[in-house]
Specification:
Blueprint: E1 8-14, H1 19-23, E2 32-36, H2 39-48, E3 54-60, E4 63-70, E5 74-81, E6 85-90, E7 94-100, H3 101-108, E8 121-126, E9 133-139, E10 142-148, H4 174-183, E11 191-196, E12 200-205, E13 208-215, E14 218-232, E15 250-268, E16 275-285, E17 288-294, H5 298-306, H6 308-339, E18 344-346, H7 359-369, E19 371-377, E20 382-384, E21 387-398, E22 422-427, H8 428-440, E23 446-448, H9 470-476, E24 488-493, E25 499-503, E26 506-519, E27 523-541, E28 545-559, H10 569-593, E29 595-596, E30 603-613, E31 616-625, H11 629-632
Helix pairs in contact: 2-3, 7-10
């Protein structure tokens, strides 16, 4: 971890000299120097784009540019043309560096009481790479000299705004755009922007949705602000898509601001694995409704001439059909999809393409890949405030075949709410079944040689230059005739599986090991018993993979009674340090490659976080259904679009 400390030096003096007198302080060898009278304008522009603390400053032949970027999603640029500078001297093709923008603005505004229109006169200089940016402000004989430390520049996204790649351009007053955004519903998650040559530039909010808790097992799903254009067949079978043709008439229904209120009950499926849904009351309403007949010949003219009377006649029917279709979708194909969700999932997927050059990890990777999680609900799902709470227990075993010889403990936890949509509590039994399955497959057995962990190669020999190595340890224990070319190996085994305990907000790892020190000259020399203790920190990345860091805090080694030779306390501490380094290396390799959270096609997870609460892991996350999930249900929905015909 690196830490940086930023300093800002401000020196204020009062002098009767003219600005040209301190111009002489400029070093002629500076990479850039220049002065301008537009200090107040530069300050205002930088302040307008200061949504991050740091920005990148560029001095080019065309002028000064400041770029502020937020994780490669949003980028803002301030450009001060060269013509706005009275003096502009640049050495080379360009200069760039990062700077703390709040400090930059504070220096520019140091003479904030300035009464002149453009503010004080500003002189900038940058001597060399890594040097501070120097700002000298002067007004009415008051001189301020600021020097701000600079940082190395970072890569940023370069947007290509070449004229040949622009399909449309809008030039408008910013006040109009601001007013348009103020009119949009602030609860909308996304905005839709449209540019039409005839109609101009329009902004529309997307569909709003909300979930209300009705009881510990029921929710009310509200979908509103939905504009739809639905095409019906000649039988008026709502939501059945039929392309208009000359052989059949069709009707297009334009629905403005459709709102659907649907009650849904959640319960545990019969197999105890997942969740099932049961729909209740449903109400569909719309702000306005209009029907047009298409390719219906005389019927088309009749329908269109009747107008509003015909609209009212069909509106109630259409709204009832909307509810019928939504309920059919949830009670039928959607529940079937939930029932068929895979409750056995691999911990590492082939497409993760994990790379590691370490021989320890490569020898264990196949074991991790063969582990599967078989999971299910412990109790009925529980609804509380804005969260769906599910308590899961599961078993991780080789190929999902089971065989864990112990049973799960009861989950003891507290319902601490946050702003996530889903709170999942996972029993510690899941982790301990994984440790048992790995132990059964020999994952915690290892042979340590001088090539296993490269930076320990000197310690694993009898001839070293580090003050102490295994050759010294063996000699001090009374082993005779230790040669300079003697090589050693450590065989590590586990007499019983390690365990993970969740307590006091921490995940405590305990491992029980035996070790044998072997020499290629003398054979087995020492036998040890040991206990390893560590604490694990977990985090979720990309919404679907758990990564962790196991910090091994103690490795305690003791002589085994059957050992041919016995080590003293100092030598035992030395062997313990080697063992701790090897185990830390192995755990880092395994943890850094991550394990997958159970997931299903059609669901996207986000904003996940993981903590230890009570004796369980608590995973909090948001979820949403992917747009293509309805197609997987085999339902042919009509084209739904924002209706702009009202």
């Amino acid at each position: 971890m690196f830490s940086f400390t930023f300093y800002m030096f401000i020196i204020c003096t009062y002098a009767m000299e003219t600005s040209s007198s301190f111009n002489a302080d400029y070093n002629n060898s500076a990479l850039f120097r220049g002065d301008t009278d537009f200090t107040r304008a530069i300050h205002s522009m930088i302040k307008a784009v200061m949504f991050r603390d740091t920005g990148t400053v560029f001095f080019t032949e065309n002028g000064m540019k400041i770029t502020v970027e937020d994780y490669q999603y949003v980028q803002a640029n301030v450009f001060v043309q060269r013509a706005m500078f009275n003096d502009y001297v640049l050495v080379g093709s360009g200069v760039d560096f990062r700077i703390k923008l709040p400090m930059f603005c504070e220096c520019l505004n140091f003479l904030g009481s300035s009464t002149s229109g453009n503010g004080p006169r500003l002189e900038l200089s940058y001597m060399r790479d890594g040097a501070p940016l120097r700002l000298i402000l002067e007004e009415c004989g008051v001189v301020t000299d600021c020097r701000i430390k600079t940082l190395r520049p970072e890569d940023y996204v370069e947007f290509d705004f070449s004229a040949d790649k622009i399909t449309c351009k809008v030039i408008m007053k910013p006040d109009f755009l601001r007013d348009a955004f103020l009119d949009v519903d602030s609860s909308s998650e996304y905005l839709e922007l449209k540019i039409d040559a005839g109609k101009g530039f329009t902004i529309a909010a997307t569909v709003n949705h909300n979930i209300e808790i009705l009881s510990p097992s029921s929710i009310r799903l509200a979908v509103s602000n939905m504009d739809m254009a639905v095409q019906l067949s000649e039988r008026w079978n709502l939501l059945s898509f039929l392309t208009p043709n000359n052989q059949g008439a069709s009707v297009v229904c334009y629905v403005k601001s459709l709102q659907v209120l649907l009650d849904v009950e959640l319960y545990r499926a019969r197999n105890g694995k997942g969740i099932q849904l049961k729909t209740g009351n449903c109400i569909a309403t719309s702000e306005s409704f209009r029907v047009n007949a298409v390719h219906a010949y005389s019927f088309e003219r009749l329908v269109n001439s009747i107008g509003s009377a015909f609209n009212k006649l069909i509106q109630d029917t259409v709204q009832r059909r909307i509810c019928t279709q939504v309920k059919h979708l949830i009670d039928g194909p959607f529940n079937e999809q939930l029932m068929n969700m895979a409750n056995k999932v691999n911990l590492i997927l082939p497409e993760m393409n994990v790379q590691s050059n370490d021989s320890l990890w490569n020898s264990k990777r196949a074991l991790i890949e063969g582990m599967m999680l078989d999971y299910g609900l412990v109790r009925e799902p529980y609804l509380h405030e804005n969260a769906i709470i599910t308590m899961h227990s599961g078993e991780i075993s080789w190929q999902g075949n089971g065989g864990t010889p112990f049973s799960p403990n009861q989950i003891i936890t507290s319902l601490e709410m946050n702003d996530r949509m889903l709170n999942v509590f996972i029993s510690e039994y899941v982790i301990n079944s994984l440790l048992y399955a790995l132990w059964k497959k020999g994952a915690f057995e290892a042979t340590v040689t001088k090539n296993t962990v490269p930076h320990l190669s000197q310690l694993m020999s009898s001839n070293c230059y580090l003050g102490m190595c295994l050759g010294d340890v063996v000699s001090s224990a009374g082993v005779p005739d230790v040669s300079e070319d003697e090589e050693f190996e450590i065989f590590i085994t586990s007499p019983k599986p390690p365990e993970m305990l969740f307590q006091d907000g921490l995940a405590k790892f305990i491992s029980y090991n035996k070790a044998t020190l072997h020499s290629n000259k003398h054979g087995h020399l020492f036998h040890f018993t040991g206990t390893t203790v560590g604490y694990m920190r977990l985090q979720v990345l990309d919404g679907s993979s758990i990564f962790g860091k196991l910090n091994i805090t103690k490795v305690q080694i003791a002589n085994h009674p059957n050992s041919l030779y016995q080590l003293g306390n100092m030598e035992l501490d030395f062997v313990s340090s080697i063992t701790q380094t090897v185990l830390q290396q192995l755990s880092d390799d395994v943890c850094s490659n991550g394990l997958n959270l159970p997931k299903q096609n059609g669901l996207s997870l986000g904003r996940a976080q993981i903590n230890v609460v009570g004796n369980s892991l608590k995973v909090d996350l948001d979820f949403q259904f992917d747009q293509h999930i309805l197609e997987e249900f085999g339902i042919k929905l009509p084209e739904i679009r924002t209706a702009d015909l009202f």
